[in-house]
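Course exercise 7: structure representation. Students receive a sequence record and must write out the corresponding structure in token form. The form below is the worked example handed out in class, using Probable periplasmic serine endoprotease DegP-like (484 residues). Read each field label carefully; the graders check that inputs and outputs are placed in the correct fields and that the protein name is recorded exactly as given.

STUDENT ID: A-19
EXERCISE PROTEIN: Probable periplasmic serine endoprotease DegP-like
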Amino acid sequence: MQVTEARGRALGTLMLAALCASIGGALPSFAQTRGPQSVAPVAEGLIEAVVNISTSQAIKGPQGLPLPSVPKGSPYHEYFDEFFDNKNGRSAPDRMVSSLGSGFIVDGKEGIIVTNNHVIDGAEEIQINLHDGSKLKAELLGKDTKTDIAILKVTPKTPLKAVRFGSSAAIRVGDWVMAIGNPFGLGGSVTLGIISAKARNINSGPYDDYLQTDASINKGNSGGPLFNMDGEVVGVNTAIISPTGGSIGIGFAVPADTVAPVVQQLRQYHEVRRGWLGVKIQSVSEEIATALGIPESSGALVAAITPDGPAAKGGVNAGDVIMRFDGEDVNSMRSLPRLVARAPIDKTVPVEVLRKGERKTLQVTVGRLTDDEEKTLGGDDKPAPGGAEVLGLKLSPLTEALRSKYGLDAGVKGAIVDGVDPKSPAAASIKPGDVIVQAANEPVAGPQDVARRIDAIKKSSRKSMMLEVEDAKGGHRFVSVPVE
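STUDENT ANSWER:
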């Protein structure tokens, strides 16, 4: 049936009126605003501070395919070498390769630019292409491979447009963010999205704490800023997950709360000086949390203490669970290294630990992390005299013969595991040669101490017990084993 234009308008008016009546007489927002609110006012004030970074470096030329040999003395030998540039075994010449990335200006007067370390890594020349098309040579002031952050310096004739850092801790999942990049030197490009997740660990380094966003981050956008709707930098766009190389809505940015102190230290020292606590830690699993009586699997369990380190001097013990550091909650094992790393060196901070069911606040003076310190973060079926067989473990006193058998130092104390029933629950986490040094947070002098702790745990109606175990290499770990 044919509908005239006038009739069509009339039908449209009736339908709109019916829609209004169905929702209480109010027009829906999309009918009033013609789409979402524009972010143009925010972008216009920021885009000049985002730059394109062009780098070049020389790499060795390819060797190419093997060339046929011509006997020396042949009348064509000289011409052959000259044609293939292979005289005296010369290889192909080095070739220059270029790469492009993005960055942003944080100090327009001094000409300080922040970008990713992987954007400028290995570069022999760095050129900054500004939004207005002008170009400046840049020098590298400092870099931090662990957070993938680098800062560059240019010498501008007049102050440049700069942006400031905001709080990445304050931003919430679902908040709008805007990514600006200058990937090909053609000018800034703007993409919009939300924060999809926080505290993402993508196994790229020891301080992973990424913001995840669906704002498009494409090739060449690495090193560009991620802004909140107040125009503050809340992250540095760093990585994407994509099978094609283009954005599929999974991008990651280094949080501003991580970047800002790194930038400050690189400007001041040309290196990053991180705090150090001197502990080896492990996650608090649900089993260990049950054994400790912790209602939530949070905090960082101290597996070992560095002798004479800051934690040891401050009274932290192996077996403590660090719940708060310098006034901030330790929500997981991975969060503690980040909190300690950004703490000022030589500052005395409160450290709240859970010890034997009680919370204690200790005062610890933060040390400085060095490379060396960072790298450290079956037999007879019958028990020996004084031994015990519990939980499928054959425990024996530490004799010289057993120390020699398992390569244990003279200073190791506890009950040695000289056999494990493969069908026992403990077999998954304990092996022959391990030494139980603590049981239920109490020191172990021998096998009978372990047996007594197990009896006490059973009488308390708890279903598991935590053991501190030391291996032949001096490594400490905590395991939770069922006692039923």
